[in-house]
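Final report, closing paragraph on structural work. Over the funding period we assembled a curated collection of sequence-structure pairs, and we close with a single example.
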Amino acid sequence: MAAIRSALCTISRVWPYPEVLAGGGALTTRSGHAGVYRSFRPDLIMPWDPDTEPATWSRFWSAYLARPEAVREVRQDALWERVVPFRLANVPATPGPAAATARVLLYPSAVAVTITVRASGQWPVAEFAGAMAALVEARTWGAEGNRSLEGIASDLRDLVAPRLAGGVVVAGPPAVHTVAAPLSADGGVAADLDTGLPAVQSCLAGLAGLGPTGSFDPARLCEVNRDTKKAARYYDVGDGLVIWHKDRVFDPAAGEKVACLVRNQTDLVVQIEALRATAQWAADRVAGNRPIPPDVFPLLRQARTRLDTLHTGRRDKTYRSVVATTRITPHLPMLATLSTL
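Its predicted structure, as stored:
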């Protein structure tokens, strides 16, 4: 029977900072954003940049910006209009029981920290989800081997949050999103990982919730793409996404293509959450008949527009994914309340 040999998992925490939308946000206006952009290096870089030059190509960001060359010809206006975050450069390493890296993104009214864990082992399908859950929940991370990934993420958040308003700001509760995928397997054939098998379904449900087992909901399993080159199955429960490509994991040359897909989908779900939190703040103010500072209207309109564009998913306009459609659809009524801003 097949055994999973390597896997990738991202844990993203997105903290909203609603008080900066109520007034004084350093990035909430076009002019404020332009000022930060003029002085953003070396501490703040583009989300697709490596820590050293030259810039790299990003499938998600190049599509999100609607043209591949945009990641190399960065314009401040384009960043503002599409609510593209800055990334904190030279983030400290995340030592621990597996290889891990961290990314810290600064939005006009949110901070997102994503920790990516790449694990290797020899897991039967029935044990795979539990092993990943135990790994990411372990308190054996950090230089002294006694930290949780949640604590490390909070520390990284605090490195960049003061830039939101030039001082101390209070975060709201974080939204946590995960993306997980096996990268390689051996000892079997692709049929051993078919999503119709009960053991695989239990594994998918467990991975989506980062727990050892789970109750599988067939409605959460996206249909097979008609393009056989994009035959990965998505199991999406709203805050947890599993990418399951039963054919590519048995191809040693294809594992990194799955890893690339994990990175793209992680960038997507973080972007959706940061934009959603901004739009939700405005919708709550509208519903409560509370004032909204006029100078943040342009940012709110951009957040609504970008969510609408991602939801529609036109390839010439943005990054297209069924995940964007399913995640944004429940929020369409909320977005509609902002149409008069």
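The chain has a mean pLDDT of 92. The longest strand covers residues 110-124. We thank the funder for supporting this effort.
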